């Protein structure tokens, strides 16, 4: 598409993880904007900040970005958007990955957000029972599964409660596993191995996303089948991922930014829902774990990694 005429517009982007983990997401957003005529160095200035997986850094970084008076602020996730929204009611905010934006108080409804915030929504907590089912299908002899979450995750109790009945139906015992910082990963995995866990389901958090390869390597080391959400985890070494492609969602979020830069109000822009969820299976990891994946499980895969 041809370049959009007019003055240079400022788009601030606040990411919850670090540059190494999120570079492909930024690239996807920049690519999506370029397709719509917004090109860095010509009619677009992009200001990036990374919270490095530290929730305490989010609000100061949001304040720093907002002090530059951006035309739009893109927040990677709901927690980031909440911190930014607490500081401004005028600067438009687009969250790229929303799990429960109504419940989080970011928007009044999906169809009519009603404030200065809109964005993209993905199923997160609703998909966790499905990941539990897929883990059981991948490893039929599985009897004990750990659910790992970050300390302070307001949704952890809700998720554990939602898994109680599916776990019973599948004949699985659920072991909660809590970590606060990356330095606790090794201890947590050792403890889970002692508790005879055979598999892991992970709750979404920037800390885990930032250290996805380390988490996957620890799972392999302790012989734990690891099923999680975004495709990035399967690429990093998880046995499988079942969820959306975050890079594709970031690219799609560029359309919301484009509409705002052209005059649309977030209050009137419906939250867009991702509707493509992929099962990506890492066959190399299966071999490392000594797992022979059932054909019925493999037939569901949309992609395999050798």
Main pleated sheet: 7 strands, mixed
Q: What is the H level of CATH, i.e. the homologous superfamily of the largest domain?
A: Response regulator
Can you give the helix content as a percent range? 25-40%
**Termini separation (Å)?**
37 Å
Order of helix and strand elements from N to C terminus: EHEHEHEEHEHEHEHHEHEHEEHHE
Quick structural summary:
The chain is an alpha/beta fold and 306 residues long. Helices cover 39% and strands 22% of the residues.
Protein described:
With 306 residues, this protein is an alpha/beta fold. It has 2 domains: 9-122 and 246-273, Rossmann fold, CATH 3.40.50; 125-243 and 278-305, Rossmann fold (3-Layer(aba) Sandwich). It has 12 helices and 13 strands. The protein has helices at 19-35, 58-66, 78-85, 128-138, 156-170, 185-194, 206-210, 212-221, 231-236, 246-261, 283-289, 295-298, and strands at residues 9-15, 44-50, 72-77, 93-98, 117-121, 144-150, 173-179, 199-202, 225-228, 240-243, 272-273, 278-282, 303-305. The strands form 2 sheets. Strands 7-6-8-9-10-12-13 form a 7-stranded mixed beta sheet, sandwiched between helices. Helix 1 packs across helix 10 (246-261) and helix 4 (128-138) runs parallel beside helix 5 (156-170). It is elongated and about 60 Å long. The model has no long low-confidence stretch (mean pLDDT 92).
């Amino acid at each position: 598409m041809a370049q959009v005429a007019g003055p240079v517009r400022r788009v601030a982007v606040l990411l919850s993880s670090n540059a190494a983990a999120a570079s492909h997401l930024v690239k996807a957003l920049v690519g999506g904007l370029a397709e719509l005529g917004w090109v860095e160095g010509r009619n677009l200035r992009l200001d990036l900040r990374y919270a490095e997986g530290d929730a305490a850094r989010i609000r100061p970084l949001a304040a720093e970005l907002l002090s530059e008076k951006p035309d739009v602020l893109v927040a990677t996730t709901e927690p980031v958007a909440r911190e930014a929204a607490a500081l401004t009611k005028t600067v438009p905010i687009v969250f790229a990955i929303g799990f429960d934006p109504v419940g989080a108080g970011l928007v009044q409804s999906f169809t009519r957000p009603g404030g200065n915030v809109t964005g993209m929504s993905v199923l997160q907590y609703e998909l966790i029972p499905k990941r539990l089912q897929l883990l059981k299908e991948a490893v039929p002899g599985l009897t004990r599964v750990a659910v790992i979450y970050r300390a302070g995750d307001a949704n952890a109790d809700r998720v554990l409660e939602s898994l109680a009945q599916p776990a019973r139906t599948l004949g699985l015992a659920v072991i909660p596993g809590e970590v606060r910082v990356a330095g606790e990963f090794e201890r947590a995995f050792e403890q889970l191995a002692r508790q005879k866990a055979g598999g892991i389901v992970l709750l979404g958090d920037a800390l885990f996303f930032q250290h996805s390869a380390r988490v996957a390597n620890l799972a392999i080391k302790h012989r734990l089948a690891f099923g999680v959400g975004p495709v990035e985890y399967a690429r990093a070494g998880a046995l499988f991922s079942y969820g959306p492609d975050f890079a594709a969602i970031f690219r799609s979020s560029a359309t919301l930014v484009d509409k705002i830069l052209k005059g649309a109000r977030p209050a009137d822009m419906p939250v867009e829902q991702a509707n493509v969820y992929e099962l990506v299976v890492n066959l190399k990891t299966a071999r490392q774990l000594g797992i022979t994946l059932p054909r019925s499980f493999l037939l569901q895969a949309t992609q395999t990694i050798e």
